[in-house]
Amino acid sequence: MNITADQLIFAAGIGQLSVLVASALVPIRLNWRHEFASLSPLHRQMYWVYGGYVVLSIVAFGLISLLHHEEIAAAAGSHARSAPTSRCSGG
Fold first, then answer.
1. Domain extents for the chain?
2. Rounded CA gap, 41 and 70, in Å?
3. ∠ CA 65-69-72 to the nearest 5 degrees?
4. Using an 8 Å Cβ cutoff, are 22 and 51 in contact?
5. CB under 8 Å to 69, separation ≥6 — which residues?
6. pLDDT of residue 77
7. For the whole model, what pTM was predicted?
8. At what angle do helices 5-29 and 69-82 cross, to 10 degrees?
């Protein structure tokens, strides 16, 4: 079985989006509403904004990997083929 780079990128996209299940459980399992009640409103908002940023980043990379896996693999392959194979020796 020969697995191609675009198949691996597609699988990585599925993996990234599956991480969202765990991300959705974090506030519930860690009881954020109760734990954050003692924080100032600014710090509470900072944690929620941080959580939203992480979720949106995961969604973005997951969707990019799912929707554009062929282009990413083609671009990565062309860069790998065009990379120089010899190293310059410093003097």
1. 5-77
2. 45
3. 100
4. no
5. 6, 7, 9, 10, 13
6. 73
7. 0.71
8. 120
Could you write out the three-class secondary structure of the chain?
CCCCHHHHHHHHHHHHHHHHHHHHHHHHHCCHHHHHHHCCHHHHHHHHHHHHHHHHHHHHHHHHHHHCHHHHHHHHHHHHHHCCCCCCCCC
Packing angle between helix 41-67 and helix 69-82, nearest 10 degrees?
80
| Look-up of token digits 């083609």 | 74
Phi, psi (rounded to 5 degrees) for 34:
-75, -45
Give average pLDDT by consecutive 10-residue segment, the chain, 91 residues: 87 92 87 90 91 92 92 79 56 51
What was the pLDDT predicted at 66?
Answer: 93
Place of tokens 């860690």: 30
